Amino acid sequence: MTATLTRRPDAAANVAAASGRPGAGGRPGLAVGVVVLWLGVVVALPLAALTVASFGEGVGGFVRAATSPGAVAALRTTLLLSAAVAILNAVVGAVIAWVLARDEFPGKRIVDALIDLPFALPTIVTSIVLLSLFGPSSPIGVRLNATPLGVAVALAFVTLPFVVRSVQPVLAELDREAEEAAASLGASNLVTFKTVIWPAIRPAVLGGAALAFARSVGEFGSVALIGGNLPGRTQVASQYIAQRIEIGDPAGAAAVSVTLLAIAALVLVAIRYVTRDRRVTTVASPDRSDSDALTGSRVRLADVNGVSPSAPGLKSGSRDSGGVG
Amino acid sequence: MRLSTPARLTLRTIAIAYLAVLVVLPIATVLTKALGPGLASFWASITTPAAISALNLTLLILAIVVPLNVILGTVAALALVRGRFRGKAVIQTLLDLPFAVSPVVVGVALISLWGASGWFGALAGAGVKIVFAVPGMVLATAFVTVPFVVRELEPVLRELGDDQEQAAATLGATPWQTFWRITLPSIRWGLLYGTLLTISRGLGEYGAVLLVSSNLPGVSQTLTLLVHHRYVDAANAYGAYTAATLLMGLSLVTLLATALLERSRRTA
């Protein structure tokens, strides 16, 4: 030990370097510099250029582009369908979560595995998969292509896992003694649900639905083929943006892009408030930190625009999801 | 809360029926349509020159993006967890942004930066094509896959602590030796998992890549663009089904790998 120390008098410096930036060859700041350069070129500069481009013709130009009839129609379609799908998946997702957490039947593991599929499939594959059943050559005679319902089906598919995977762990860990106490005191199932279960799962349901909404608002690939891109009817905001680029209006595309970014940011901020709900802790388990309703679940911010196979258990609650701008 | 048998069966039926209509039946239909005409014609459809070129381009983009984002993601995770420096919040926000941005918006952002009338438009003027060429597609895929490795490694590194790294350094190990012998072996599962997520996401990226590709069959189409092209431009629904099935197969392999990894990690 002493020999080592004499041979390497810079050991103390190594400690600092290793704890500071291992792998950077000990040169202080190099790792940070590389990271900043990487994130700067890949993420920050394009988004900065986008923001500047959206104001290329001044604030007036931005407002004109973002409030043009085509843009407003596309944003309206997007928001209405996203909200409808978020509500649908909040209800059905909670039912599925309940079935997976509390019911037992043969093949339950297969049903559980199916939930992860929508996150794993590339979005364009989703569009083709849905078209094969609900498209022009539908084997069951149901043609939803180029209808708002078709867009809704695509959005429902890609956002299916959000509510299920955020509610399921909460239901599984929910203290059943409170439920049994309520029942033994003569409470009906409806009363037990309203006073015991709903307060416990509410943040997970709302948080999951908000993530589903955020994902829907920016969704492009799964809608691309089945939606039909009909302006004023099925064209969603992302398709409108792509069309602006095709017809050579990058400033208009940038303005609507920034609007879409702002909506996504608002929703993500709202999620933080929803999951901060204080009432959760008192009803669920006292030692459960309230934000765990989402972070402890298998759904993450990553899945909002990420095709990522979600995996149980790996996501430790200590994940620091940071802030979204 | 104890449900009566009819109520329980009703909920179970709703859950299974929803999944059947939304997920199982559509996937079964696409598989039937892609494989129905026989394996030989399926194989022929996914080995046309355009399809092979699309597979090659997808793999080329992944071959550039995955090492880049895995290595830099590891450096970023180490810097964020172990280092002390100002501006961490800015880096954290930049790492979260790709999760919140629509793929189409990524495409528009890249055009705003690298396009002919963008900030670096002079490059395009000098004949260096970034957007509407492969480099733009690489940048688009890099953008959407930036956070995966960092976000997988951060909690692992935090849980690991730096006791062993400090001990190694005290015993005279250089930072490189410490990284290769102590840190890397401890984070290898998380690193592998993050890598699989990066591959999975990169493989399926469509919107961002569509906007910055010249989208020529056999030249600048990835697998996702090939699916789109065959269905829309070539009116070749069968070809779209087969290409989508190939892409679905690749994604399921990645999904299966993550599931196996998860299991081995839990038992390890």
TrEMBL record, chain B:
Molecular function as annotated in GO: ABC-type sulfate transporter activity
Main location (coarse class): membrane
Membrane topology recorded in Swiss-Prot or TrEMBL: Multi-pass membrane protein
GO cellular component, one term: plasma membrane
Keyword Transcription regulation: no
Subcellular localization: Membrane
Origin: domain of life: Bacteria
Alphabetized Pfam families for the sequence: BPD_transp_1
Record has Acyltransferase as a keyword: no
Ranges for domain ABC transmembrane type-1: 55-259
TM annotation in the entry: 9-31, 51-81, 93-114, 126-150, 191-212, 238-261
UniProt KW keywords: Membrane, Sulfate transport, Transmembrane, Transmembrane helix, Transport
Signal peptide annotation: none
Subunit structure: The complex is composed of two ATP-binding proteins (CysA), two transmembrane proteins (CysT and CysW) and a solute-binding protein (CysP).
Physiological role: Part of the ABC transporter complex CysAWTP (TC 3.A.1.6.1) involved in sulfate/thiosulfate import. Probably responsible for the translocation of the substrate across the membrane.
Name recorded for this polypeptide: Sulfate ABC transporter permease
Organism of derivation: Propioniciclava tarda
